[in-house]
Every structure is written in structure tokens, then in C-alpha cells.
Amino acid sequence: MAHKLDITLHIEVLESVEELNAQESQAMQLAQEAANDAYAPYSNYLVGAALLLEDGTFFKGNNQENAAYPSGLCAERTALFGMSANHPNKIIKMLAVTVRRRNETEHLPALPCGACRQVMAEYESKQNENIMVLLQGPNGTFYRCQSVRDLLPLCFSGKDL
Ligand code: THU
């Protein structure tokens, strides 16, 4: 008999920047700096990502576009692939993401695309330790997820191969 599978996700909504702890606000600030350096001449949609590593260092990424549109890459994956290429064995503690449109200061909700969520899930499972994901939310709020699993339930993984 068919039955319902109820899935519960936990996402904390922080009402303002004051609710971020010191590391979170530093990560968000670095993500904003990264967004300023995005190469997004086609969309003018500037995405910045910052990874906090276990040793307290940060690694930044931003979206990189291309005239051949699909050749470009999102900020989250630029950060994660760059980090993994340079520090393959370091644990990622946190990923912060922010977005704004060029020539605007207001932050937009930073909701990672499905492909980026899949890549986040792979690194979380590889390191066998949660990655906290902090996203810019609407109207000055932030979304705090304790694990990538909260952003991608019923996730495909290498274990399924
Ligand atoms: N983009 C990201 O960097 N991250 C996402 O999660 C969604 C989209 C970028 C890709 C492209 O450069 C621009 O935003 C518009 O889609």
C-alpha cells in the first residue's frame, strides 16, 4: 500500500546581521567581497561565496560567466572546486553565499541552484562532517542550515552507484 513519506528540514531564519556570530558575519563579508569580483557581464547578477575551513582560513569564489553561456560556473562551485583543488584534505566548516545585482547595493536571496546543492552534498559526504550553509535571505534576513542535507533531501550520492 502506498504511504506518505514526510520529510522535515530545519532552516533557521536570522532576522538581521546582528544575529550572525563573528565567524558567520566574517564569512558573509568575504562572500560580499567575492561578489564584487564576480565575472558576470551577461547576467549582471553578482554571486559571492566564502568557505570557512577547519583551520580558520577562508576560501572565496564567485560566478564566472562565458560568452558560450553553459561554459560559465556558479559562485558556489567555483569556491568548492577551487578549494578542493588547492586544499583537498581540509574540512569545510561553513559556506556563505550572497547575491546582488550590478549597480545595486541591496542583497537578494541567495538560493543555490540544484547542481551546486549536489556538489555541496558530495563534499559534505566526502568529509563525513556537516557543512553549515549560510544564505542571504530576503529583506536583510539570513538562512542558516546546519547541513547541506537540509537543502537537498533524498539526495543522489556516490553510495547509490
Ligand atoms: N549563479 C550562481 O553563481 N549561483 C547560483 O546558485 C545560481 C546562479 C550564477 C550563474 C550565472 O552566472 C548567474 O548567476 C545567473 O544565473
Explain what you see.
The protein has 161 residues and is an alpha+beta fold. It has a single domain (11-151), classed as Cytidine Deaminase, domain 2 (3-Layer(aba) Sandwich). 25% of the residues lie in helices and 22% in strands. The chain is built from three helices and six strands. It has helices spanning 22-36, 75-86, 114-127, and strands spanning 12-14, 45-53, 58-62, 92-101, 132-136, 142-145. It has a six-stranded mixed sheet. The chain starts with 11 loop residues before the first strand and ends in a 16-residue tail after the last strand. The model has no long low-confidence stretch (mean pLDDT 97). It binds tetrahydrodeoxyuridine (THU). Tetrahydrodeoxyuridine is lined by residues 40, 43, 45, 47, 63, 65, 72, 74-76, 112-113, 116.
> How is the main sheet built?
6 strands, mixed
Strand line-up of the largest beta sheet: 1-6-5-4-2-3
- Report the helical percentage: 25-40%
Number of domain modules: 1
H/I helix tally: 3
Q: How would you spell out the order of helices and strands?
A: EHEEHEHEE
